[in-house]
């Protein structure tokens, strides 16, 4: 791959047309559901992507497992496993599509049921290999059902990988959420607005003139103006300006549905999230960096939100007072991050995965951390950590399970406190698992912790790698 750094961003709009095919389901006069509440019962559901999963003998076709939330935790009896071979889902499961590689949720058509966006970045479009595509699975009283497929605006391209990263937000502040989609095989990333009709805005020249290696997205109101902003992060391995190969840019939403470009920060990015950790009603940007420099074992850095965009920053790692454990090389602290209010104090807390933490001579067992928000932001005070060897956590620590490869913070029980889901995709020979640890006023509670295994979903032996991708 060869590329060069692009200069200023150009903004153009495409309304309908292109390959944005499919009508948006009619809107109903109902409350807007919270993300991941697919059946509208007030409880968040668990969505787990298995992009390397086998469907009908086709390797890496990919599928998504959905487990409804319940007062007792998660109800695997009502689970659904959805692929491109499922009834009502357009297209067909094909080898290497990687359906489920990315996930995002919002009530896009405002009918009282959350919808799920599923990326398949290696979907072919005609003769265009790995053009990519995004499927919207629409929520209903019975959960996810019918679906619509969207492709890249204008012309799908060879290895454009439309849908590698997804995020949902409300850039106009009008209560109608948007879906943001990266297209790393070009110099663009795209947002699709779901209202009375679909439309797309394409921002060109994101980093390289041709492509980037990996992309991340997150959304939240960083400057406190009541409109959502979008954070786009990239890794461009062959950027000739070495210091620019990794970083992120903030784009501020406007009342007209467009963007104004905010600050760009050149920094190593391995994970990305947005949340209001100090309770000032302005979201902060948190970036995970798993490298052993400047912090042994990895770190997370928080960039504060201000009325003018991003402000100052601070970092936390396993040397931060109060954070459990001691960082050693290749812990990969910061491999994954997720935001939610676990202790119900009105401030966001942060889950951090460190999937390569060793326990004694058992290597790459993994650990998940919870860092609590406070009036001064995230600190180590009251921080918690769990592994498969923590009392009350189901199962046993196994080598190379990678517990903490993905984390999520969503209220699955309806108690008003976010629960932490932790993925261990390499457990059980690559079948994987997801562990749920419930939240409450005192933080994480080991009482009632439960694990979702491939056998309970009917996907054991299909390379499910449960926990490699978790909706958050």
> With helices defined by DSSP (H or I, 4 residues minimum), what is the helix count?
1
Side-by-side strand order of the widest sheet? 1-14-13-12-11
The number of strands is: 31
Intertermini distance: 32 Å
Average pLDDT score = 89
* Share in helix: under 10%
Stretches where pLDDT is under 50 for at least 5 consecutive residues are 1-23
Helix/strand structural class:
mainly beta
Query: What is the approximate shape?
Result: globular
In what range is the share of β-strand residues?
A: 35-45%
Q: Radius of gyration, rounded?
A: 20 Å
Structure characterization notes:
The chain is an all-beta fold. It has one helix and 31 strands. The protein has one helix at residues 454-457, and strands spanning 10-15, 46-50, 63-67, 69-70, 73-74, 80-82, 102-106, 115-120, 133-137, 147-150, 166-169, 178-183, 188-194, 198-204, 214-220, 229-235, 246-253, 259-265, 271-275, 284-289, 299-306, 309-317, 336-340, 349-354, 367-371, 384-386, 406-410, 419-423, 434-440, 443-452, 469-470. The strands form eight sheets. Strands 1-14-13-12-11 form a five-stranded antiparallel β-sheet, with no helix packed on it. Strands 6-3-2-31 form a four-stranded antiparallel β-sheet, with no helix packed on it. It has a four-stranded antiparallel β-sheet with strand order 7-8-9-10, with no helix packed on it. It is globular, with a radius of gyration of 20 Å. The chain starts with 9 loop residues before the first strand and ends with a strand. The model is unreliable at 1-23 (pLDDT under 50).
